[in-house]
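Thread: "does anyone have the structure for this chain?"

Original post by V.I.:
We have the sequence but no experimental structure in hand. Need at least a predicted one for the grant figures.
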Amino acid sequence: MSNPKEWSNDYNGFNDWKILLHKDRLEGCSSGDLLPPVAVDTDPSNICQQRCIYCNAYDYRDKAGFENMAPGHLLKLADFYADWGVKSTCIAGGGEPLVNKDTLEMIPRLYSHDIEVGMITNGALLNEKYAEELTNGARFCGISIDGTNEETYKRMRGQNHYRQVVKNVTNLNNLKRKKGSCLDTNLKFLIHPFNYEEVYKIAKLAKDTGCDGVHIRPAGLENIPGVVNYLKPENNPGFDIDEYMKVTLENIEKAQELEDENFKVYAVRHKFGNNFKRVIKFRKCKATPLSGVFGADGWFHMCFSMRGRSGFRLARHYPDPWEIMRVWGSEDHLKLIQDIQPEKCMRCAFTRYNEVIENVIEDDKIFGNFI
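Reply from O.Q.:
Generated one for you, tokens below.
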């Protein structure tokens, strides 16, 4: 079985070793003397026009409500981020961020505060106005598209927006080149038993539409309510996990042949073990203060993978986001962190960050003062 590398160039936005740039934050996570987050997620909306079969936000949205963030509050958050010392925000969501029309006004407000901006969207609403604003100064835009034809796309995402998304991505990249924008665009593809044979094709589509790259990783099927875990033979007797892995890895290797100086393939695997199952290589989860989620429901959630779930809601940010500063690093906050049980969490996006806190900051296994 082939074993392709995650990427050909270590200096990229998906490499988690970038966290070492923020040693002061890591030390704060270890000691409990918390500094402001490096980055936060902004969820403008819990509404989505799609219903992806792997979505881990179903139960959250059912409880929180299918609604947009309150009118005007996104601008208030942009001002608050600057006051707090946040360096960047990814505009994404428990829903689709472009459903909320206020998102368009928030982006230039963030630019005015020198806060770096990224966006993750399903791309169906990525019109000329958003393309113009993103190419004015955003660092990246990831467009989630889990199929390379209308049939697979609809099977994965519940709606048939495939042609519209491809058109919008192409227009965005055309505008990016016309303006000489530094915006980095990637198609995002979650590997699933319904689409694993299309891994090479998604890389080809990304390159053909003018993207800078494609981001490929396994769908997080574990512990998602209402989703059959196709990786378990007892749930799907006809599914061959060995063939699934073989074909997937061969497709990744073939996709990497498309790389050149302007196009890269990022096949993220370090957060997963064999058979793409999640892996936990740390004792305690201490990394949540590196980030956080300003949810459309008005709550600040400590972890985007666990937004809305018991033990991960810190405080209300609506109507007054400055309330977060009053509870950040408090005894109650530190107790919530202490009580996190990683084995009960969904996929951990901060796996490596927790490993760094324990192995580099606390145990100094790299002999940090010897260079």
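V.I.: this helps a lot. The chain has twelve helices and ten strands.
O.Q.: and Residues 16-362 form a domain with the TIM Barrel fold (CATH 3.20.20.70).
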